[in-house]
Amino acid sequence: MSEKKKLSILIRGIIQENPVLILVLGTCPTLATSTSVISALSMGFAATFVLVCSNAVISALRNIIPDTVRIPCYIVIIASFVTAMQMLLQAYLPEIYDMLGVYLALIVVNCIILGRAEMFARKNPVGDSILDGLGMGIGFLVALLIMAIIREVLGAGSFAGIAIPFLENYKIPILTQAPGGYLVFGIVIAAMNKLTAKRGGVKRKSFSCEGCAMAEGCSKESCSVADRKESADV
Questions:
Q1: What is the pTM of this model?
Q2: Least crowded by CB within 10 Å, which of 119, 126, 163, 174?
């Protein structure tokens, strides 16, 4: 594969298919851990580590894992890396471990990670899968960081825990709470949509049952109708 193609795989997750701002995935940890820059960076790096490692292993085993049990296998692989990361953080960075709390363990069921395993890693070689995981991880990290900067600076009057004196009397505490998280999330997505609209927008893709983990259990007829409607909308 050409260097240009490899670069496009990496950049796609950061801009064109940003998992949070474009695909609107992983919103739970995004809202929960974007109250401060430190927690946002920690969650972003943790998710990127799991994304890259799980994508690499799943891609390497893509011809070995039976198709009928691929989702449970993916979850076991992802959970293994999450558990290893939890143990390392608890041993060497206990403050970060306590800060992330339950959301660190919930990386196992983060739809970004499982989605990339299903949509990309199981169909592509290891090198490309690593680039895809890295790009999606960086995109997730960037989205978290943007929201965290807005919420911490304006909501708490600090940056990475360091107080900003001239904002001491102008803090908006609600931004560090759940309602403020939704407000900032909506504003950032609206700004992203405006930015992409000026550049021609993000192209939508038509989807089919192929590769869907639920394809065998749902109605083929309803899927066909949905596919035709999606194709017509595009």
A1: 0.81
A2: 163
Q: Please count the residues of the chain.
A: 234
The 10s digit of each residue's pLDDT in 20-75 is 999 999 899 999 999 999 999 999 999 999 999 999 999 999 999 998 999 999 99
Of 92, 78, 76, nearest in space to 42 by CA? 92
Higher pLDDT, 61 or 5: 61
- The string over 76-92, giving b where at least 16 C-beta atoms fall within 10 Å of a residue's C-beta and e elsewhere, is ebbbebbeebbeebeee
- Please tell me the distance from the alpha carbon of residue 127 to that of residue 59, in angstroms, as a whole number: 9
Residue with the larger pLDDT of the pair 231 and 51: 51
> In this structure, how many other beta carbons lie within 10 angstroms of the beta carbon of residue 27?
15
158-159 and 162-163 beta bridge pairing: antiparallel
* DSSP one-letter string for 3-67: HHHHHHHHHHHHTTT-TTTTS---HHHHHHHTTSHHHHHHHHHHHHHHHHHHHHHHHHTTTTS-G
Lookup: tokens for 142: 């960037």
Among candidates 180, 207, 160, which has minimal Cα distance to 37? 160
Is residue 212 scored above 60 in pLDDT?
A: no
Q: What is the C-alpha separation between 191 and 166, in angstroms, rounded?
A: 27
Cβ atoms within 10 A of the Cβ of 39, count? Answer: 21
pLDDT for 228: 42
Kindly indicate the confidence band of residue 196, based on its pLDDT and cuts at 50, 70 and 90: confident
Unique residue bearing structure tokens 């194709």: 231
The string of DSSP codes covering 187-203 is HHHHHHHHHHHHTT-PP
Q: Give me the torsion for CA of 105, 152, 19, 195, rounded to 10°.
A: 180
